[in-house]
Each structure stands twice: as structure tokens, then as C-alpha cells.
Amino acid sequence: MSTSQTFQAPEPAVLVLEDGTRHPGNAYGARGTTLGEVVFATAMTGYQETITDPSYAGQIVLQTAPHIGNTGMNGEDHESRRIWVSGYVVRDPSRIVSNWRSDHSLEDALVRDGIVGISGIDTRAVTRVLRSAGSMRGGVFSGDAAALSDEEQLRIVREAPQMAGQNLSSEVSVDAAEVTPAVGERIGNLAILDLGVKQATVNNLAARGFEVHVLPQSTTIADVEAIDPVAVFYSNGPGDPAASDRHVALLREVLDRKLPFFGICFGNQLFGRALGFGTYKLPFGHRGINQPVLDKTTGRVEITAHNHGFAVDAPIEGVIDSPNGYGRVEVSHVGLNDNVVEGLRALDLPAFSVQYHPEAAAGPHDANYLFDRFRDLVIATLETKKNA
């Protein structure tokens, strides 16, 4: 009996960057055309958490680790309701799935959610281009779109919008409030402005005794006050913080009321803008679970999970007066690779933020203490009000 199998040649695909460089490969995931900002992620694990992170909306994510997909996908590790990456680029996708928790393959998940990808290209070579020239617009073309002329594909890429100036919060936020009960001794209601929140963040906050109210990005201060919150939290999310003036204005109303505040990632950038600092676009951003950060309060170096293409423009050293009148502020955390601001702390208000992801999904647990720091800040603020 013959054991031979019919060989099926891979379907062609191509990654086109706006500088005109082309990287032919094989179709992976859904077929068609996708456009976005091409960025690289340096994590060797955690691809399921990465692609379901709403912060990646509008971005074509390239994995620098060469072998992706070997543990498949499962129903427990999603960070949101769907895959958010605009496209996906890998070098060597696993041909089989080898994990007891898996219930389907990575490629099946990409097809299901309509994510156009490409495999079989030299991802390290593309990464070197992005590290030198910076993140840039790109497109993946497969199926019928792979047969378009080089000139037509490049034209389509160059007509795509730049990431700078985009407000993507409405695309990723919930439409109506969602509530997660507190675990253990209840502290009170926590208002989360959902700009692209991850489920691990919600779980960590609920585990600290907060009844977590995830609110739509269109929320007003009246909506926030209606749940009688003990604190407010701004989540991670995609887009340019300079295009989110309404969310900055809401945060200033929160700070005016001296409600305890904690923000991560996009929330850190909006906190910086609320305090009166500017933000700027990084050349190629920080994306991965291996980024070293110095906590200036403790002197400890943490290995942390990052996903940000913008950063706060504030002095690294010393205490600064908030340009918007919120008292003294200091940079609390600094990225050791490039001295980027990775955290802010208000000294005259119960408010702080970090640029990275303490929920560790995926990623190390070095920064998980920040959720405890927030809980302690809220409890101390409630005690002060009680004794006033």
C-alpha cells in the first residue's frame, strides 16, 4: 500500500513595506489584503495573548521568534473577545499542535477571525529594516491580491493612514458596561475606562477586592460618578494619545475630584497629557515580554511586558511641577534600553501610572506588585477621608 501523500504547494503571499521593500512568502491564515503599521514583537512565548491584545489594533505584528504556533490556541488565554492584530507575520509556523490545553491551531484561529498573515519570510531581516528606519506602513497580500502588480500593491500601502493621529478607542471598547465581582473582601467599585483593556487586568483588579466596572470609552464624568467609584483606572489601548483629548479631559475631571487613579500603557500616556506633558511617537516602539525597567522607588530592575509605540515626554530626573496645576510629579519608572519614561507618580494626588503591563499576560510577573500598590493607595485614601 502506498504511503505517499499528494504534495500541495504553498500559496504565494507578499509583505510590502511603504519604503518599497518586498518580502515574498507563503499565505498564512485568511486570504486577501490587510494594511497597518508593521511592528515587531520580541517575545518568544505568549503569541495568543499578543494577538488578542486590543492594543495591537491597526498593526501588522511580526514575531521575531522563528517558530510560532506549536502550542496551538485554547479557550482560556484570550485577552479579549477576538484577535485584534491587523495582520500576522511569522517565519516558521508549526505544522502540528503539541499541547494538552490546545483545542485548535493558530492558523485556524486566524482564519476564523479573518486575519491575513504571511509565513516563510526572513523575519529577522524585516526587523533590522524596522529598527533602522522605524515602524512603517505595510500590507500583506495573498489570494487574488498576491497577483496585483508591484506598483499597485505599493500604491495601496502608501495610501493607508499613518498610526500617528489615529483614535482607535471606539473600535476596541465595550459598547455597554460590564461588571466583574470582587474576590474576597470587597473594597468598592472601580471604574475602568475601556480603551482596549485586557482580561488579565480585570482579573487582577477583581482579585484585589475591587468590583470592576468596565465602562465604554464614551463614558462621561457623570457616568463615572453614577457607580460611586472608590477609584478610576485607565487601560491600555491602541492609537495616538494626542488624538484622545476627550479621554484626557475626563481624566482631568477625575483628578480634580482627587479620586485615586491608576493607568497602564495608553492610560499612562493619557495621564501624562492630563498632567500637562506631551507625548511622542517612538521610532519602532517597545513590544515584547523581555524589557528591563528600573523602579526608581525601590531601585529594583524588573523584566516587563511592553506594547507601546508612543511615550510621555517628561524629565527623567527630579521632581517636576505639573504644567496643568496638579502639584508635584516625578518619573517613577525608566526603560533601561533607551531611557523612555515608563511610569509617572503624582506626589500631591493619589495617582500613578506605568507604561508597561503588570498583568503579565503574556510575560513575567516582576511588576505584579503594582496592583497591590494601587489597592493600598485606595485603602489609604478611603481611611483618610473617613478620618477627615
From TrEMBL:
SMART domains assigned: CPSase_sm_chain
Ranges for domain Carbamoyl-phosphate synthase small subunit N-terminal: 11-141
Pfam families found in the cross-reference section: CPSase_sm_chain, GATase
> Which InterPro entries does this entry report, sorted A to Z?
Anth_synth/Amidotransfase, CarbamoylP_synth_ssu, CarbamoylP_synth_ssu_N, CarbP_synth_ssu_N_sf, Class_I_gatase-like, CPSase_GATase1, GATASE
- Residues in a coiled coil are none
Region entry CPSase, spans: 1-186
Question: Which residues does UniProt mark as catalytic?
Answer: C265 (nucleophile), H357, E359
The pathway that the record names for this protein is:
Pyrimidine metabolism; UMP biosynthesis via de novo pathway; (S)-dihydroorotate from bicarbonate: step 1/3; Amino-acid biosynthesis; L-arginine biosynthesis; carbamoyl phosphate from bicarbonate: step 1/1
Residues holding L-glutamine? S55, G237, G239, F266, Q269, N307, G309, F310
* Subunit structure of this chain's protein: Composed of two chains; the small (or glutamine) chain promotes the hydrolysis of glutamine to ammonia, which is used by the large (or ammonia) chain to synthesize carbamoyl phosphate. Tetramer of heterodimers (alpha,beta)4.
- The protein depicted here goes by the name Carbamoyl phosphate synthase small chain
- What organism, scientifically named, is this protein from? Microbacterium marinum
Supply the gene name.
carA
